[in-house]
Amino acid sequence: MSYTKRNDGRKFEETREIKAEVGVIKNAQGSAKFQIGETIAVAGVYGPRNLYPKFLQDPEKGVLRCNYNMFSFSVDDRIRPGPSRRSREISLVTQRSLAPAVNLNEFPNAVVDVFVEIIQADAGTRCAGICAASMALADAGIPMKDLVAAVGVGKVGDKIVVDLDKFEEDYEGGASDMPIAMLPRNNEISLLQLDGELDVKEVKEALEMGKKACENILEIQRKALKDKYKGGK
Fold first, then answer.
1. What are 131-142's pLDDT values in tens digits?
2. What are the structural domains of the chain?
3. Which end of the chain is more exposed for a tag (fewer CB within 10 A), N or C?
4. CA gap 162, 222 in Å, rounded
């Protein structure tokens, strides 16, 4: 089925409106809020602090732990609160997406905990969570070689598009979703998943569109961090 026009009027390579802010949780070492369209993720960083039980400690470097949770009221159809198989899977995906950017060599036997809460969802929650978590780590002063930017790309009907919303994910003509995360400075991909089917040509096209979107997201992340310190917060 031909997909000639996006439901919200965006261009095929265009993300939804993005808003980003850091320093949103008073008691966290670092925190951030990242909103893309109607999807809102809030992340808080706690640590580095001693890791217990001790057998989990690494004497050479610190450990990064991530916890992803979607509030039960974040979607129209209320979800069951508490841990789920999906939340555990996305927690691991988030950790692996962030790990290449984070340098924990200065914190042996310690842990840095990242908590990601989705308070409103309209598709793209794992990517929004990764973006928020990356900003929160930087806000906490954790050494990083780059911020991590993430976005969903995919195919709706017969068109490759950036940042699918819920309408597009559920498109009756068929849709495929490919979340990606990047360290844009070195053009390094830290996350690449695919839900659906794309041929090799379509994957390459989606990656190129995703890379450009991630570069734009990175600028928004950087600006949010700079704005905090310009204001002397």
1. 999 999 999 999
2. 18-224 (3.30.230.70)
3. C
4. 21
